[in-house]
Design goal:
Double Stranded RNA Binding Domain, 3 strands, alpha+beta
């Protein structure tokens, strides 16, 4: 099983999430919990689609770190 970095962002009235390693794979939700559930489903669906189309599944390569400023 691969682990992909997911970026979560708080908007005015909802949350959004995306994975830099999976362009076009995004999700939204009214709560943090909901967007986490939705992005897991979106990643699964995205990877299944890539496989069905005979495309390669990208290796996770993004990382994150907090920088003190």
């Amino acid at each position: 099983m691969k682990k992909y970095l997911v970026i979560f962002e708080k908007a005015n009235d909802n949350y959004s999430a995306y994975s830099p390693d999976l362009p076009g794979c995004i999700a939204t939700g009214a709560t943090r919990k909901e967007v986490e559930k939705n992005i897991r489903e979106a990643i699964s669906f995205h990877l299944e689609g890539l496989k069905e189309d005979g495309l390669s599944v990208p290796e996770p390569s993004s990382f994150t770190e907090y920088i003190e400023a």
